[in-house]
Amino acid sequence: MEPTRNGHATLVDLLDRVLDKGIIIYADLIVSLAGIPLIGVNLRAAIAGMETMLKYGMMTEWDDRVRTWERQRIEARKLLIKPDPQIEEQTVGILPRTGK
Amino acid sequence: MQNRETIETIINNMVMAPEEGRYVYCIADSAQSVHLGKIGIEENEVYTVPYKNICALVHKCNAEPYKSDDAEVVKSWVIAHDRVIQTAWEKWGNVLPINFDTIIKEVSASSAEQNLVAWLAGEYEGLRNVLQRVKNKVEFGVQISWDPKGVAQQIMRTNKEIQKMEGEIAGKSKGLAYMHRQKIEGLLKQQMETSADAYFRDFFGRIKQLVDEIKIGKTKKPENGLQMILNVSCLVERDKSQDLGQALDSINNIDNLSVRFIGPWPPYSFVSRG
What value of ipTM does the predicted structure carry? Predict the structure, then answer.
């Protein structure tokens, strides 16, 4: 199977990445988005059509369970490998977006 | 009279002049100071701001975020954002995408560009580490979906408990038969969740073995009657995606399952922590 990146369907996947991923700079010198509706949220609502989501309550629940499982797995791994405090220091400023 | 107007205009311009900003697309593994042409958002000229052996790709703008209620407009910005990153990726091979709509502004005495260089200097070690980690690697998306109707039918056909309960419906009164059917439905739902769980673990394990890093994403809304049961981003060494492709073929051949294999992209999902 060969990977593809053409077509409308992959555009949606690209939007996910451009809007949600990438390095986030936290600093005073960044133009603040506070108080401004998040552009990505609006866009995704327009593309996805939220109402269809509600029909599939079962899968939402299942999706949550998968995420919990993955979180637990990561936690379990953390217990095995102590994080290096120096590395933690170095990556300050390249933090993931939280609370999503 | 004319003089006064001129002075007013000058004062107004001073007060109203928007702050200067630099829209930042990505960090690239290059020391070059070059202009890449008008490939940016709204045809802005994109150029590099180097620091040591890395550089940031930027365009000049006002210190105001890009925002619009028009999804088409935003889409064109997002495509332009990606276009710049892809261009840098093809040119220098190794880039760190920056989140959409990141604009560095001037602060009191220091210009936007000075602030950008100061940020690059402060984060230099961290950025170099991430560049090293994603070097020669590309990102793929893998989405596995199933046909819930087909899966349900298969379970109805093969699950002994459900078959037994089906058999018991005959001879029951209307009301009892209804309740019995509800029970079967509940059992079916449970079986499907168990099955989705098992598939997820199986496929996740298979894919994980063949990639350098993997991240779980949220499953998407159903499309064309298909429900997504796995959505992951993978970081794979460039030119080493054949094994992954083969593994996905074997999953794609399973009844009621379909696989989407998308990319390659710059390492969007693997440049920030978490």
Answer: 0.80
